[in-house]
Every structure is written in C-alpha cells, then in structure tokens.
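User: Fold this; tokens only.

Assistant: Input:
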Amino acid sequence: MTRSWSKEVTQNHSTAYLAIGKVAVSWAHIEYELELCVSLIYSHCEGKLLNENCPMNFQRKLKIFRWAFESEKRLSDLKSDGSKIADAMSSFADYRNQTLHGTIAFFNRSEVVFDKHEFGGRIPKPSRRTVPVAEIEKNGQEMEDFSFELGYFTSQFEEALRSTTSMST
C-alpha cells in the first residue's frame, strides 16, 4: 500500500528529524572526545592501575575523566575547566538520553512527543514527554558548539599529559 504524504507532513518530519539528528551527531562528537581523553589517561596516567577494560559506558568514562584531574599533577592547570566540562557532558548525556532513547509518538511543526520506558525498579514505567522543536534545535546547537570547544580542550589535555614534568600523585 502506498500513501501520499502531504508536503506539510514531510516538512514537519524534516524539521523534527533535523533537530534530533543534530543532537545525535553532536553527542557522537562529544563522546568521541571523551573516549580520546580516556585513551590518553590509559596511555599516560598509569591507566593500568584503573583496572578497567574498555569498552565502557558513558558514566564509567566520565568517572575516569574526573579521576584524572584529581590524580594527575600534569592536569592541574586544566582542573577547573575539566570539572566544568565533565558537568556539561553529564548534562548533555541526560538530554541525549531523554531525546534519543525512546520513540516519537507524535510530532507537528512545533513539538515532538516522545514515549519511553523508564527503568528504575523491576517493572519499566511508560513515560511521555512533549518537547518544543525549538528547544531541541537550541540544545542541539549548544551541544554542537560545546563539541567544538571540547575538541580544543582535548588538544590541551593531550599536550599536558604528554609533558614529562611530573607524574601521577
């Protein structure tokens, strides 16, 4: 069976999918940079002492990232920024989870309704959340901007770890 979709429905799809896609692609770049930092930690911060195997989930990578700023003297100049970056990554991860995990139940030109199962006990609970498309677009842009800043920070992070002036505390 073939359906003929109206131009308006197609445009609504495009607007919502483009906004959600920007969140997904920006998140991929953020997580890539975090994975690079974790790799650098394993390479330059006696990472074997962490006794963890890759791959790992986001929360574990973030924990290792935070650990490095507490344990590695070479990162002392980046500690304040590193903490802010870790907090931002955590916030963006929460938003990514809310936006990408679940299904689109309905959308129109101005809003998207997401259905999701929330896990927190033995039985998953269904939830529904309505989000303005403009909010998704705004957050996707913030994530994209942050991903570029994170790329620059990662280069500073790598440079600091490659220095040999001091080792782990």
